[in-house]
Every structure is written in C-alpha cells, then in structure tokens.
Design brief:
Number of strands: 5
Number of helices: 16
Radius of gyration: 20 Å
Largest sheet: 5 strands, mixed
Strand order of the largest sheet: 2-1-4-5-3
C-alpha cells in the first residue's frame, strides 16, 4: 500500500469499536479526490450562508473568508489527496448529526449518543462553516503530522485509558506476524489543538498552504486565532473539547509508497471515540477493540491484504470487515486478550455500534449486522481451534475470512 490511513474525511463520529478506514493516501481516491466538504447542499466553491447570524459571528465568518488564500479549496483538496484524508464510517455518523436525515440503517446507542453532542447549539451555521473549512479534521491532522509516541502521552480526556492502550499495543505487536516495532501509538486531543494558535496554525499552514505573498507563520497563526474565536463563541463546542472533534481512530502507513512523507507508521486514537464508547457502556472492552481493529489495518498494509477483485464500497467493506475479524480473533485468542463470554459480547457489540448503511459510498464499512457477524465468526475461529496455543498466520486467517465473506454480508445483501 501507499500512504494509507484509517481516517475520517472530516472526522468525527463513527468507526468500528475498531474503527477507522484504511486506504492509500495518494489514491485517497477510494472515493475520489475530495474538494471541500459540501455543506447543506451548498457548493464547496462558495462560503456557507451567514444570513441569520448575529453580527459578531458573521464578522468572524467574513474575516475567515478574507484571510484564506483565494485558492484554498484546491489547496485543501490537494492536501486531502496527499495525506489520504477521506470518508470513513466516523464521518458518516458525524454527517448524520450535522445534516440530519433519514438513515436506512438501524439506530444504535452510539448514533444516539452522537446526536446529543450538538444539542443546545445556538448557531448551527458555525458548525456548517467549520465543516465547510475542514474543521473536523484539524485535531486528527495535528496527530498525523505532529504527533509521536511518547511516555508522556495520555489517552482519554483524563488519561484514564493510557495504561490500557499502551499495554494493549505491546501485546498486539507480540501477537501478529508482522514487523511492528516502528508502529507508534498517538493520542488525539481536541481541546489542546483547538485552543492553541501555534498548533492549529501549523495544521492550517499544511492543509491550506501558505499564500506566497505573506509570511507563513504570521498568516497561519492569524487565521488560527480567528477560527479559535469562532469555536469559543459557541459554548457547546467546549473550546474544541467537544467529542465531535476527536470522534475517530485511524491507522496510517507509508509502506511501499514511492513518495513517502516521512510520517511513521502509527495508530491514532481520539478522546471522542473513547468518550462515545464509554457513554454506551462499552468503556471496558471498546478501547481494546478500537486498537485491535486499527492494528489489523497494519497487518493488511504489510501483507498486501487490501488487494482484491472488488471495487468501490464492496472493496472498502471487505477490508473493514476483515479488520473487525482480525481484531476479534486477537481479542478472543488464548494468547491474545482471551476475553470471557461476557466481555466478548461487549466486544461484538462495539463493532455493531459503528456499522453503516451507506451502500453506495466508498466509505462503507459494513452494516451493524455485518460487522457483528464478522466479529462473531472470528471469535468462533479462535475459540473452536483444537490447539488453543497456536496463532494462525495472518495469511491463513485471511484465507479463511475470504471464504466466509459471502456468508458474512448475506444478512444485509442490499449492501
């Protein structure tokens, strides 16, 4: 694979308890090159309608539009393609919050939780503008380009998942048959990024590019201050700490990329997704599921398991259901997490929570039922093995998965 990442197109709410979507960054073209996010039916070439805003908010929007480079849309599009930002099931859930509409999928506790994140918003147009300018990608992009593994890293709003995730990462590296020494585990904190003009300014300078006629740092930091002022004007956004900004987890790799950017292989886990899973009663098992799913993407990267005859949504669904299966195989294996029956059910529910029914989207990860089925099947593979101490080689597990895939997707054959 090339630069590959399991990431949201704009970020925020919905991936497998294992989450994330993986695709080549150069070919972030699993959905095609993104321009700017279309908001409320408006063209990405024109700013969001600010009519009805209070004068102070409208003034901020006008300043942002004036401070951006004239060609920011094409710059952002190029950046998305370069780094592999594209749609994922997280963004599908986020979109259902920002632009509500009928969903063909059954509701889950996680989507209900997501709906609550913007309750009480005073100015919906602020959300539309942030979406329009790529604001729900900022914290994730910071973790991608500036984050690094460190003993000082904390996972979760209060660091409550730090020990669990760092220990899990070590176990996963021992379990799978890949060269995993260089895979870093990196946190994503929205409040830290979206309250710092310097950190956000660095993100904006990369995402939008610097106008040649202005000093890069001055331009980027000035724009960041204006965006921070906009975020702070809406209390529901909690100064950038609202989980909607970090409701994501993703895996990134430049394995085999002829034009590497020099970013290390990594797994990024956002505070928001951990908060979401805790809110629906899965805070015990879901973090392990998230990490095991994202690590499975790295197995896919190194073993070239993204290659298949499938295309479009079916191709994405295959790789995501495979990551669910690989993740659950590890979680239930005697030499993995060896989950008991009660915790296994929670793990399977975690995958169910983030299914989607976007059958025509290249961000389609599989329906809740398909994700649950994939996870349940893998648990059976681990639990029914005659030699409980033997770990299947990843290519053998893939062989079994490919044979089972038609049965796994059959319950929701419309997808």
């Amino acid at each position: 694979m090339k630069k590959t990442l399991s990431m949201t197109a704009s970020l925020a709410i919905a991936t497998t308890c294992a989450l994330g979507m993986a695709f080549p960054a150069h070919a972030a073209d699993t959905t095609g090159t993104t321009t700017a996010t279309t908001v409320a039916g408006r063209s990405p070439q024109s700013p969001v309608d600010a009519s009805g805003m209070d004068p102070q908010t409208k003034a901020l929007i006008d300043r942002i539009q004036a401070e951006l480079p004239a060609d920011w849309v094409s710059r952002l599009s190029a950046t998305r393609a370069k780094y592999g930002l594209d749609e994922s099931s997280w963004s599908e859930i986020r979109e259902s919050v920002i632009n509500p509409g009928d969903s063909p999928c059954q509701r889950t506790e996680l989507t209900t939780y997501a709906d609550s994140l913007l309750v009480g918003i005073k100015h919906p147009a602020i959300i539309y503008n942030l979406q329009f300018y790529g604001g729900f990608d900022w914290a994730a992009f910071d973790a991608l380009i500036s984050g690094a593994e460190s003993k000082s890293n904390a996972f979760g709003v209060n660091g409550e998942y730090t020990q669990k995730l760092t220990s899990e990462a070590k176990n996963l590296k021992r379990f799978w048959d890949i060269d995993s020494a260089g895979i870093q585990l990196v946190p994503m904190h929205g409040g830290d990024v979206l309250s710092s003009p310097e950190r956000l300014g660095h993100v904006l300078s990369v995402m939008y590019g610097n106008p040649v006629e202005e000093p890069p740092r001055e331009w980027a930091i000035g724009l960041a201050k204006t965006f921070i002022e906009l975020i702070d004007s809406e209390p529901v956004l909690q100064g950038g700490a609202n989980p909607i900004f970090t409701f994501n987890a993703f895996a990134y790799s430049e394995t085999g990329d002829p034009e590497p950017l020099g970013i290390s292989d990594r797994i990024v886990v956002g505070d928001g997704v951990l908060q979401g899973m805790a809110a629906v009663g899965l805070g015990d098992v879901a973090p392990k599921g998230i990490l095991s799913h994202e690590f499975a993407h790295h197995v896919q990267f190194q073993k070239n398991l993204f290659a298949s005859d499938l295309t479009g949504p079916e191709a994405t669904r295959r790789t995501e259901l495979m990551a669910d299966a690989f993740g659950t195989y590890y979680l239930t294996h005697a030499r993995g997490e060896s989950l008991n029956a009660a915790r296994l059910l929670k793990s399977e529910k975690s995958f169910y929570q983030v299914g989607d029914c976007s059958f025509t989207s290249s961000g389609h990860h599989g329906t809740p039922n398909q994700r649950f089925a994939s996870s349940s099947w893998a648990a059976g593979v681990a639990n029914d093995a005659s030699n409980q101490g033997h770990i299947l080689p990843s290519l053998k597990l893939d062989e079994l998965f490919e044979a089972k895939l038609p049965d796994l997707v059959e319950p929701d054959a419309a997808g």
